[in-house]
Amino acid sequence: MKTAVLTDSTAYIPEDVRKKWGIHMVPLSVIFGEESYQEEIDITAEEFYSKVKQSNELPKTSQPSIGMITDLFEELSKDYDAVISIHLSSGISGTYQAAVSAGNMVEGIEVYPFDSEISCMAQGFYVLEAAQMAREGRRPEAILSRLNEMKETMRGYFIVDDLTHLHRGGRLSAGQALVGSLLQVKPVLHFVDTKIVPFEKIRTKKKALKRILELLAEEAQKGKQIEACVIHANVPEEGEKLKKKIEEAHDHVHVTLSYFGPVIGTHLGEGALGICWYIK
Questions:
Q1: 171 backbone dihedrals φ, ψ, rounded to 5°
Q2: GO molecular function of the protein, one example (predicted)?
Q3: 18: which DSSP letter?
Q4: Gap between the Cα atoms of 11 and 2, Å rounded
């Protein structure tokens, strides 16, 4: 059985890596006024953050249509028997549900949708694992079983400079945003049951980052191999600094650097930082 791996643009897997592993991608979009841009295709992360600074209002985001995903599945059916379709958390986007609907409509290919229940490079970790297994000729059921196993140790924590982006985008409740802005709190955020919620409320960015590093250290003390990623919203120097800290502290943690692209960046705002990891 020949299995394709599809994800959406919010995994932010570089194009050369997607090509190397034969990963297919469906884009989400950001909308400035009347202009719509497919992320990772029409607009880069750098261009996006520059455009936000010049714009008077925040952009909106848009998920791919069921029709777009159906067309992609039909195209894949010419060369593949099955497709593992891995998407950002169903609690912050309808993309996963659109893939489920498209999978029910298409013929000639078995569609296996997977809700990552997270986003960005944490989502990307699932995609890369699936792509490797698909290349080895593993069956879709075995791939899904492995992804669900990974989910048990997948962790992701992040902080934002300004809670109003999450509030305006409907990803954080009014009360939480108000408390944060009044007290200048830098809450550590994470995903629970597909939704973004505060993990701990911490007063400063420095202390919030220290807390995330402590959480990673707790996992690292177990002595198992860990795959980690530092993710930044247009602050690569800060991202590199965090990456270096982790590398110096833990020799059995492999760390990469990634970014919050246009769609996720719309909701988190410039300056956001996160760390995600799972036990290998």
A1: -100, 0
A2: lipid binding
A3: H
A4: 23
The CA–CA distances, whole Å, from 77 to 2, 8, 27, 155 equal 10, 18, 19, 34
Specify the number of domains making up the chain: 2
CATH code for the domain in which residue 200 is found? 3.30.1180.10
Tell me whether residue 75 is in a domain: yes
Q: Would you say the pTM of this structure is higher than 0.90?
A: yes
- Of 99, 131, 150, which residue constitutes the final position of a domain? 150
The model's pLDDT over 97-109, given as tens digits with 9 standing for 90+, comes to 999 999 999 999 9
The answer, yes or no, to whether residue 179 has pLDDT greater than 60, is no
Question: How far are the Cα atoms of 7, 101, 123 from residue 64, in angstroms, in the given order?
Answer: 12, 12, 17
Domain final position from 126, 150, 174: 150
Bridge partner residues of 87 (DSSP): 115
- 35-42: long-range contacts, CB 8 A cutoff, minimum separation 24: 36/62, 37/262, 38/9, 39/9, 39/10, 39/261, 39/262, 39/263, 40/9, 40/12, 40/15, 40/261, 41/9
Token pair of 100 as six digits: 């489920």
Query: What helix, strand, coil percent values describe the chain, rounded to 5?
Result: 45, 25, 30
Same domain, 142 and 170: no
